[in-house]
Amino acid sequence: MRFKTCRRSRRARLQPAFRISIVVLACCYACYLYVSRYGTIVEESGSSHRYSAIYTPINLTPGGGEKVILSFVSKFQQLTNERVDLLVKPKNVCVKVQCVKVLAKKLQVNGIDWRKFSVKAVNRARPKYNVWFSIANILLPQVESRGRLNIYHCQFPMSEINKNKVITVNKLVPGIRRLTGYDIVYVNSHYTKSWYERILVSAKAAALPTRKFTTKLKDSYAPELFEQIHLPRIVHFSPPFQLQAMEKVNSFVLHGKGRNVRILLIGRFFKGSQGKGHPFVIKAFSMLKKSLPGVRLKLELLGHVVKGHEMYLRYVRLQALWTGGVYINANADENAVRSAIRAADIVWSTTGIHEEGLDPGNAEHFGLALLECMSAGLVPVVVNRGGPREILEGFPDYLKVVSYVELATSTKQLILATHEEFKDLSMLARSRAEHFSTQFDSGVASLFTLFGQKLTPQNRDVWFAIRARIARYERGFPLEPALDINACPSIHEDMKAILYFDDRYEYALRATATQLVQKLGEEWRFHVWHTDSNVVFVRDSLQGFDCVVYHSISSLIDTKHGFDPRYKSNYNRVWKSEEFWLSLGKNVKHVLTFQSDAWFPPLGKFRTDWLQLDYIGAPWCHEGNWGYLDIDARPEEAVRMLHDTRKIPHDVRVGNGGVSLRNSQTMRVIAREYAENTTSQENEDVYFVFYLNQDKYTIADITEATAFSLEVMCKDIVQHQSYLSGHFKDAPVPFLLHKPFDIFKQVHQKGEVDYDSFLNFFF
């Protein structure tokens, strides 16, 4: 009995230790789960975002959408030097890194650092990312945004245009809420963009209540949707594709005996919307063979079979066997695709050919495989819908068909064309492919450009921090459209104007314009000078701003050279013309000029006494300024910026013209009186400032200019030294900043400026 009692007491003594062990093990297991999901437990300040993510609900099989996804993986790694998580549904057919590697090889996507890449189930996503990219085939994103920069890629809003599917308000309102969390909607063609905008307008009209609703009903419905909605801007540029720089090996010889003509069609094998319509293609090929008995024809169908559509592929094989001359490769690798392109003469694009209706979702949204074939000189015959219609701009109409019967007859006409005609079409195909080939790189770069500064691994933290700040100041998108220019007063009734002149894509433009309206008032009308390349983006950025006047720079200058001052026809010549200032309105007196690399700090104040001046701009510093040197004494690197710009008098300190406030009538007088006293290449601000000083016009002194604008830190300006030393509390906030990233670099090099203090002061 005593022995049993002793055993119980020992067990009782061990119970506390056992419990502690269980708690420790549980804590360790919890830490393991957290680390496996989020990567680390304790991170440095600001480092919790150092990942990018791409979410796709679509099965990863070789196709255009997957090529876009993997290309963005490569781009995000290059821009941020960060790890990229590819987030998929747990039952995706490709959930291993090795599987994605094989997919990238098949799609010819290079440049991915696999050491900084992982595939995860979406329920294991990190709580926050620097860049969040979501892709889907519907109007509204399926998942909430999680990034400091959020991009939604809509391949096409398919389900919303399906008439048989009921979309209720209960579904639309949450979807629109999710959409407002994104910064950008990226689409791949004009075609997709036009349909996305149309359907989004319909969705907003269906989901958002009218102003007649009572306050009680508003509160119970969706109160935030009664305010101005911050919908993301919609941008489009071509998706990535591989230029096939190769020599053709078997181009057919026309009007000779025993000709061989090879036709190629690339696309996945499946039945349904977006299918290539292989059975109809084979019917067209059969008709073509019968109409050209003297020509040896070959049709090659390349692609991969979509899981679950094996019976469809079997049916296509039977049709091909019955027709003859049709060859199918349902597991084509990179080498097989290149060999087929190299040997072919004609490429078919047939998405939607089997559809009798006009469902826009069934058309080809862009045409990656088509462009890759065209880049090798293959002449296209396409269904005249969607993206291929855009791609074949400038081609003869007979190459754009609407049925498989026309596909056969048009291809016959092409085969019977003269050798010169076919050669010209082949060269045109290469030219169109080259036109689209650079759009993806430049488009992605534009998404990550802020105040003229591209995102790099070196400026990553400050770039995202500044972008997050300025996003707070963007005006929400109103439900009502802005006033059309035809409903506004004439520009010749205006007295004040804001002049924006730039050919760049600038994602801070909407926030900058919002700040200007708040500081200056609605009586200042925007005049926006744009090029053909950025006109759509600029108009989208200023959606909801009333009475904006848009001018085409292309009507004034040769835009193919950009705005380089060395070219006689460009920027400086235009600004030094009287006609340019008259285009703002004959009675306009005050003009505020700004460019894409300007920012107006929220705490900066506009002083009305500046309107008494003829000119005010940021101060010029003596140190490091080549403009104060004789032309012959300037270093070689000064030529690009100054060329033959005259020497600036030493006592002239005001100032820079990129962002300035001017008397338009005075500018016109000087432009008229001294038109012969300048060269085309001379910088316009030096030209105007020189004659303003000579003729004793009213120019701001250096103190006023310092309060107006900050561009470069000058040693003899006390306020600038306060910025460099980090004493922001002792210095007033300037009205505007020119090139904010350069300013940050200047103050950061001193090592005395607190990072957050800089952001709080200027942003």
UniProtKB/TrEMBL annotation:
GO MF, one example: GDP-Man:Man(3)GlcNAc(2)-PP-Dol alpha-1,2-mannosyltransferase activity
SUPFAM superfamilies documented for this protein: UDP-Glycosyltransferase/glycogen phosphorylase
Biological process according to GO: protein N-linked glycosylation
Organism superkingdom: Eukaryota
This protein's UniProt keywords: Glycosyltransferase, Membrane, Transferase, Transmembrane, Transmembrane helix
Keyword Transmembrane: yes
Gene3D superfamilies: Glycogen Phosphorylase B
Transmembrane regions listed in the UniProt entry: 16-35
Protein biosynthesis listed as a keyword: no
Domain DUF5672: 568-720
Domain Glycosyl transferase family: 262-393
GO cellular component: endoplasmic reticulum membrane
InterPro entries: ALG11, DUF5672, Glyco_trans_1
Protein name (Swiss-Prot/TrEMBL): Glycosyltransferase family 4 protein
